[in-house]
Amino acid sequence: MTTDPTGAPHRIAVVAAELALTGARVDAVRADLTTPDGLQALVEAVHAVGRPVDVLVLNAGVANGGAFLDTPLEDDLAVVALDVVAPVHLAKRLVPPMVERGGGRVLVTWSVAATMPGPYYATYAAAKAFGLSFAQALRHELRRTGVTVTALLPGPTDTAFFAAGRMQGTRLARGPKDDPARVARDAGAGARRTRHPRGTPACARTRGTGPAR
Ligand SMILES: NC(=O)c1ccc[n+]([C@@H]2O[C@H](COP(=O)([O-])OP(=O)(O)OC[C@H]3O[C@@H](n4cnc5c(N)ncnc54)[C@H](OP(=O)(O)O)[C@@H]3O)[C@@H](O)[C@H]2O)c1
């Protein structure tokens, strides 16, 4: 079991153990997806399962709150690495076998921030805008392959996101938030509903957002 620096089981190990109680096989992998090694480790772990990917969920993401003039460059680049480079890398490596098999579903978590300028989390909103455009284009390209692409655009949701992005004090973080379980259910339902060739990518839009301060 993977552990955190204190020796306690890491969150992913705890969740994997809970899911395994349903009788499903669960393989938990910890990988830093901001690094080429982490991306490679995850792709190898997927291949090691020895079964095709039916549903690919690209969900990992971080924000980086603050004025662009103040945020450390390494934090800005980490947002780009996790929210832009990693999903492109994983889609490039894992979607082609789904197309070869002629079926599957791709669900990507972007954000309602993708649809508007994002002052005070500029790199995050720009990264999500990239992702939404990428998903819409990929969906079109895959329209005759049997592989669907669904973009989830949550509004503020009650997770560790705001703390992880150092945005706890912001108006956005203090405002109303959606229940993550409900957002996850909407996402699953949206991905199941997505059909080709008609319709727009299913988006579970929740609350609106705005400048992150
Ligand atoms: N919460 C919101 O208000 C909101 C709104 C719109 C969109 N979103 C998007 O929703 C997605 C999920 O975020 P969340 O709200 O559930 O926040 P969260 O609780 O902070 O979860 C972030 C997830 O990303 C993973 N992650 C962070 N850094 C990583 C790294 N370097 N390598 C691999 N995985 C990493 C985390 O894994 P660990 O637990 O191992 O750190 C965690 O599973 C993100 O893409 C986020 O941008 C969130």
UniProtKB/TrEMBL annotation:
Q: Would you say which domain of life the source belongs to?
A: Bacteria
Report the GO terms under cellular component: membrane
User: Do the record's keywords include Oxidoreductase?
Assistant: yes
One Gene Ontology MF term = oxidoreductase activity
Pfam families reported for this sequence: adh_short
What keywords are annotated for this sequence in UniProt?
Answer: Oxidoreductase
Is NADP one of the keywords?
no
Locations of Basic and acidic residues compositional bias? 175-185
Region Disordered: start-end pairs: 171-213
InterPro entries referenced in this protein's UniProt entry, alphabetically: NAD(P)-bd_dom_sf, Sc_DH/Rdtase_CS, SDR_fam
The membrane spanning regions, by residue number, are none
Annotated family? Belongs to the short-chain dehydrogenases/reductases (SDR) family.
Output the PANTHER family linked to this UniProt entry. DEHYDROGENASE/REDUCTASE SDR FAMILY MEMBER 7B, SHORT-CHAIN DEHYDROGENASE-RELATED
Q: What name does the UniProt record give this protein? A: Short-chain dehydrogenase/reductase SDR
| Species annotation | Isoptericola variabilis (strain 225)
